[in-house]
């Protein structure tokens, strides 16, 4: 087979391709490919991050794609389904994303950012300056939490929340599956998941079914609740989120996945509404899974997928293009 890597040639992938070439010498290994490479049409397998859809149109011999991350909503799924192209992804950063969701929540309830910014300006809080209960922070201990999405991220998050003695409810679109570890209950409806909990975590992928899943109407009825989104921005109605936060319906929100991203450079508002200027929001620039550990593990797992495919004809972790996750 002819295998093409679109990963940066001046990176660890150069060493990895060399190792794979020695391990599987019967295959042709090409590296440093770009969207303009003439070899695309003859490739059987592609190793890549985000590449233009035109690459897949041109790759008429393609059998499988290997990518070192989870999300597949950027792929031309219909084309790939029609051509029976398999997609192998990895879930190596699940714990890291779960940790980030928890950290953002602790930052809000613990008033970490507020206390930090005030003390930088030499403003104190608490009993040391004879302040009362208005300066207290809140613990997560024993709170009711719901996790929308009980996949790899949701399961890791449920385990972390148990350290705080939280009651953890889960909601998923797949019915009648076994209850994962650390969940107290899997509830049958989305509304029940929201009603039962104070803190709502979103750990769902971006699909047609999850787009606008948390509607404006739903948000405007989430009085006193705290929303954490480490899934995708498209899952939560953008205008409704802004209105619910601005008007004090939601207690607050912690957001890592957004609605608008800089087209170029590093400057740009994360939403068409000034959500990022509200005081009851903890902001994160979509870096939930961006840790050194997760990056190394993602590469390791991608290589494991490639090795398994070349030895058995099947990778270990295969995405479902029909469900888009």
Count of discrete alpha- or pi-helical segments spanning 4 or more residues: 10
- Measured between the Cα atoms of the first and last residue, the distance is 27 Å
The share of residues in extended strands comes to 5-15%
| CATH fold type of the largest domain | Rossmann fold
Number of strands: 12
H and E order: EHEEHEHEHHEHEEHEHEHEEH
Name given to the CATH homologous superfamily of the largest domain: NAD(P)-binding Rossmann-like Domain
Domain count: the total is 2
CATH class of the largest domain: Alpha Beta
Name the average pLDDT. 97
Spatial sequence of strands, sheet with the most strands: 8-7-6-9-10-11-12
Instruction: Specify the structural class.
Output: alpha/beta
Biggest sheet layout: 7 strands, parallel
CATH architecture of the largest domain: 3-Layer(aba) Sandwich
Rg over CA atoms, rounded to whole Å, is 22 Å
Proportion in helices: 25-40%
Essential attributes:
325 residues; alpha/beta; Rossmann fold; 2 domains; seven-stranded parallel β-sheet; five-stranded parallel β-sheet; 10 helices; 13% strand; elongated
Folded structure, characterized:
It contains 10 helices and 12 strands. By secondary structure, the protein is α/β, with parallel strands linked by helices. It has 2 domains: 2-92 and 293-312, Rossmann fold (3-Layer(aba) Sandwich); 94-283, NAD(P)-binding Rossmann-like Domain (Rossmann fold, 3-Layer(aba) Sandwich). Helix 8 (216-219) links the parallel strand 9 (199-202) and strand 10. Helix 4 crosses helix 6. The chain is elongated, with a radius of gyration of 22 Å. The model has no long low-confidence stretch (mean pLDDT 97).
């Amino acid at each position: 087979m002819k295998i093409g890597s679109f990963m940066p040639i001046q990176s660890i992938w150069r060493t990895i391709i060399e190792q794979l070439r020695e391990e599987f010498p019967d295959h042709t290994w090409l590296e440093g490919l770009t969207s303009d490479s003439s070899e695309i049409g003859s490739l059987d397998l592609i190793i890549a991050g985000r590449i233009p859809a035109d690459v897949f149109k041109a790759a008429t011999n393609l059998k499988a794609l290997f990518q070192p991350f989870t999300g597949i909503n950027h792929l031309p799924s219909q084309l790939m389904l029609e051509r029976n192209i398999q997609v192998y992804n990895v879930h190596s950063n699940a714990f890291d994303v779960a940790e980030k969701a928890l950290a953002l929540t602790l930052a809000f309830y613990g008033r970490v950012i507020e206390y930090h910014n005030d003390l930088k300006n030499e403003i104190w809080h608490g009993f040391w300056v004879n302040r009362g209960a208005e300066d207290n922070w809140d613990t997560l201990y024993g709170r009711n939490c719901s996790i929308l999405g009980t996949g790899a991220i949701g399961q890791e998050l449920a385990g972390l929340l148990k350290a705080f003695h939280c009651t953890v409810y889960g909601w998923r679109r797949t019915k009648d599956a076994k209850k994962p570890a650390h969940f107290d209950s899997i509830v049958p409806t989305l509304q029940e998941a929201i009603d039962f909990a104070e803190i709502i975590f979103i750990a769902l992928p971006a699909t047609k079914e999850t787009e606008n899943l948390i509607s404006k109407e739903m948000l405007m009825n989430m009085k006193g609740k705290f929303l954490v989104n480490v899934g995708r921005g498209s899952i939560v109605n953008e205008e409704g989120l802004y209105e619910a936060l601005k008007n004090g319906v939601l207690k607050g929100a912690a957001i890592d996945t957004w609605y608008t991203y800089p087209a170029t450079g590093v400057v740009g508002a994360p939403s068409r509404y000034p959500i990022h200027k509200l005081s009851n929001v903890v902001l994160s620039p979509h870096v939930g899974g961006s840790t050194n550990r997760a990056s190394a593990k993602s590469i390791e797992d991608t290589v494991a997928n490639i090795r398994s495919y070349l030895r058995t004809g099947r990778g270990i972790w295969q995405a479902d293009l029909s469900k888009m996750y």
